Amino acid sequence: MYRDTYAEIKLSHLDYNIKKLQVLAGDCFFCPMVKANAYGHGAVGVAKRLKSLGVQSVGVALLEEAIELREQSIDLNILHFGPIKENQVSLIAEHKITPVITSLEEIDFLKHLKEKIDIHLKIDIEMNRLGIKLCQIELALTKLKETSASLAGVCTHLAMGETLSDESSSSSQSLKKFKSLSDKHGWQNMDLHSLNSEGLMSLKDNTYSFGVRPGLAMYGVGEFAKKLGLKPVMNFVSEVALIKEVSKGEPVSYGKTWVADESKTIAIVSVGYADGYPWALSNKGFVKINEKKAKIIGRVCMDYIIVDITSVSVNIGDKVLLWGQLKNDEISLHDLADKAGTVAYELLTGISQRVPRKYINGLS
Ligand SMILES: Cc1ncc(COP(=O)(O)O)c(C=O)c1O
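^ thats the input. predicted complex w/ pyridoxal-5'-phosphate below
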């Protein structure tokens, strides 16, 4: 590695978060989401660690994500949450992937299957995204009987999991609906799952014992994660590449959107939007160097950001905290995403391939 920009992945924090979430979830289906390269943390590294913690199932969005895990010898139960196409059915069987069926058409594709596979069925109660509509359930169950697939689980996804502490919220009503559907159809002994991170954390005592698919919280990010004392798993770190002086009236970076109002010392930091550092933080964001805040000045470039270090003592090669924790410094990803006008999910999943993930195994 020639450039010292990396995402440090603290696996001990992942362990800690998973254990806390498992306690909250209780004895029910637990399926951490490792889609989108485990929210940028590296799907293979994270899945291996989850296996060592005794986790049995993980969730992905794409078939290629599932196959990557299989090719890296991950033998967990892999739930594939995206829609499938007719010509993908044999691939799913070959790699022993559990498809979460999202439409009647997909059940028709399963008729070509010779192998016996387990499937989960997704019910669309309130998202109007993936899943069969309530009025299609009977037909779906009939069609399923004409295939060699067996129904091992049923799930739904809520639009506002964070509102489940309020029993009158529309998502609470949807969850109740899901419960009455499962009672009506006798699904109680299957894997029933419906809660994302915020759903789990806002629903008191996991009232219906529905299974959980935690994503953001297990990576230790978000308001709820903070309240629960979960620990951020990723620290995004770069280094100071150059230091220079600019005089009053001199501009910095593309578009000359920042002009020095007096003599300034600036540092050029080796990270840019090609690494996943958001352009939206141009003239808005900040980093921490040697425990001091340094503001981003001018536009974020493809490979660099430029920060004002006039009142910070800095040397070339010093580490720069972009988000997460570094020694005594901390930058909340949630707050940074807010500043950028986006969500933490987008920043995490946007970290590009050219940023190495460094796995830290030790306890801290
Ligand atoms: C179907 C499904 N379940 C669970 C999750 C996890 O959500 P969160 O990261 O908010 O916990 C997602 C995330 O997008 C999802 O699409």
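The two ends are 25 Å apart (CA to CA).
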